[in-house]
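Dear Dr. H.,

I hope your travels went smoothly. While you were away I took the liberty of generating a structure for the chain from your last submission, since the lab meeting agenda had it listed for discussion. I wanted you to have the full record in hand beforehand rather than looking at slides cold. The sequence, exactly as received, is reproduced here:
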Amino acid sequence: MYISKKLKVAVAVLALVSALGVAGCGSDTKPSNVASSAATQQKVENVKVKVGYPPSLCQAPLIMAYEKGFYKEAGLDAEMVKIDGAHANESIGSGQIDTMQTLITKTIHPWQNGLPVKATTGTHFGCVRTVVRPDSGINDVKDLKGKKIGVAGLADTGAVVLQRALKLAGVGVTPGNMEVEFVVVERNSLPEALKSGQVDAIAMTDPVGYIAQKEYGFKAVLDTATTKGWDTEYCCALVISDKFINENKAAARALTEAVQKGCVYVKEHPEETAKLLVEKKYFNGKPEDFVELLKSYNYSPSVQGGYDAIKASVKDLGEIGLVDQTDPKGFADAEYVFFDGMPDAPGK
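The corresponding predicted structure, in token form, is as follows:
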């Protein structure tokens, strides 16, 4: 049901600041965590790795890397572990899994709080959208000024990404100049809240966003898979536990390259991927719907792209006032591992 408590602007910002926490500062030097060639080029043989995946379609590359044998080819003995997306960080932090794909914006706060993982490659674009009723007269993000926006939570990825977009569009989203109002709505009730007019727009991650746009006829004013500027920033990255990286850097590199191959495979074979995901019961749904989404996510992995996306996210969050962070590069350096000699992406 629609949650009646309406979050006024100052309260919304303060709550987001609290939820996202305070980031530590780094240096302006070259990343210190560049794994050396000697460490990353050792032979990898039958190294066990637990690959976590929540029930989200954008996890397809990790699954296809398993199904197509890319982990095995890389010398890894992979076990696929289904996890609860709401507790994914706890799963990797506790050692239940060694690796997973995560939304970059969503991971800034856990990193600040000491989540013991490092990102190693960007995986794809998309996943987040803001939609409105087609008769609303709202045609762009800047038109949301003065409007009520439904979100699943103040620190939800949809809310934070939209705040970044509003800032870039010149709409006030700082504590002293908030020009929109956020209203918290239970995630699955967001489409109905928009349809009924209780809010003017809803910001959310897929698949709720995709379903809302398709089934209710809503239109997107922000889609990070297609909106100019956002379509070149990675939404998701592969993260690997510090423990796994420290114990076997060569295996961590091999794991990263296997997932990159999984990304490329999904991009080149979306129909086959969608069919396999349903037939092997990784996800429930219609393969034809999955194909459309998989194509929109543009699985073009990039090591540098993932790193750049962390910097961009931290920079915007700092300027908005959601984190006390003046050194996005230092933050990215601390939370990223570059494997010396590894190409940016397969074939490059």
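Two observations you may find useful: The first helix runs from residue 9 to 20. Residues 1-32 have pLDDT under 50 and may be disordered.

With kind regards,
E. W.
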